[in-house]
Amino acid sequence: IVSGSENLHIEPSGHNALNNGTDLSDFFQDDIDASDRPTGAGTWDIGADEVTGPPAPVATAATNIQETSFSANWNASTGATGYRLDVATDIGFTAFVTGYNNLDVGNVLTYSVSANINPNTTYYYRVRAYNANGTSGNSNTISLTTAPPAPLATAATNIQATSFSANWNASTG
How many Cβ atoms sit within 10 Å of the Cβ of residue 106? Predict the structure, then answer.
């Protein structure tokens, strides 16, 4: 599969040549354009060309952390046309938050995570960059804990002319 007549370049999508080659990194480290070949089974493209996506973005600290929401942030990845976001309740990303497994968030550098988020809970997020040539590996992982729930106010007691006692129920966490 070529993108032009006899030029040996692979189209970036729509066929089985991607990630189906044999790892020959002991013999060849670069493709015909001097692009680095990855190491490991199932990562090489078939043929002389290696289709490569943008580099992995760098995730940065979450902001606007509330009881049931936060903003996930990352730095731009050169050549990216969009990003995919994962949010989980474990650092191994086996327990994804519903709706946040490989979520295409478009070409933005921050995303408000607000669906299915609970108070006083630790979350982890990571992102990947993509373009027409492929998808990067995962960014670094960021962890955060959402704010505890607000306490519930109860009726005032000991009401005097110039004072009163404010009361509330304890908040978990």
Answer: 10
Structural element, H or E, at residue 113: strand 110-113
Q: How far apart are CA 159 and CA 148, in angstroms?
A: 29
Residues 6+ apart with CB under 8 A from 46: 10, 16, 17, 20, 21
pLDDT at 6: 56
CB 56 within 8 A of CB 134: no
Instruction: State pTM to two decimals.
Output: 0.68
Residue 81, token pair as written in the block:
């046309």
Match 């070949």 to its residue by tokens: 37
* 57-66 b/e (C-beta count within 10 Å ≥ 16 → b): bebeebeeee
> Are the beta carbons of 146 and 119 closer than 8 angstroms?
yes
